[in-house]
């Protein structure tokens, strides 16, 4: 009768030979690889899960509030610049100062552009 250690050694040798001949991964390594692959796939699946967002209306409402505020600020600044330019033009017209009239007309045009820009932005929405 052969020694049990020798039998195990011979069995291991025969398994290695069979695995080399068939080109398969050894039985000891294969379960580790498959568990690792399964673990990676589970982690990827859990991390790539897309959660539906039901709070989108709250976010868009806040963005719309900011949008409305910015449009209002642009329109108010345009009206202020327009009024300032008109008053400066009237003062320059009284004093017959052409350079001041030119500067005042630039302010009037800038005010009109700001007012019309806020109206156009509101229309584009």
Q: How many helix segments? A: 4
Shape: rod-shaped
Instruction: Indicate the mean pLDDT.
Output: 79
Helix share, percent: over 70%
By secondary-structure content and strand pairing, the structural class works out as mainly alpha
What portion of the residues fall into strands of 2 or more residues? under 5%
Radius of gyration: 40 Å
Low-confidence stretches: none
Count of domains: 2
Series of secondary-structure elements, N-terminal to C-terminal: HHHH
How many strand segments?
0
Largest sheet: none
Distance between the termini: 93 Å
Tell me briefly what this model is.
The protein is an all-alpha fold and 125 residues long.
Observed structural traits:
125 residues; mainly alpha; 2 domains
Describe the structure.
The chain is mostly helical. Helices cover 84% and strands 0% of the residues. It contains four helices and no strands. The N and C termini lie far apart (93 Å).
Topology (SSEs and partners):
Blueprint: H1 4-22, H2 29-47, H3 56-95, H4 98-124
Helix pairs in contact: 3-4
């Amino acid at each position: 009768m052969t020694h049990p250690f020798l039998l195990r050694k011979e069995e291991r040798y025969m398994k290695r030979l069979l695995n080399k001949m068939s080109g398969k991964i050894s039985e000891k390594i294969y379960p580790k690889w498959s568990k690792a692959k399964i673990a990676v796939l589970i982690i990827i699946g859990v991390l790539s899960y897309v959660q539906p967002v039901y709070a989108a209306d709250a976010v868009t409402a806040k963005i719309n509030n900011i949008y409305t505020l910015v449009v209002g600020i642009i329109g108010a600044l345009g009206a202020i610049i327009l009024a300032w330019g008109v008053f400066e033009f009237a003062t320059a017209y009284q004093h017959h100062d052409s350079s001041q009239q030119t500067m005042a007309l630039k302010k009037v045009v800038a005010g009109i552009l700001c007012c019309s820009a806020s109206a156009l932005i509101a229309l584009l929405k």
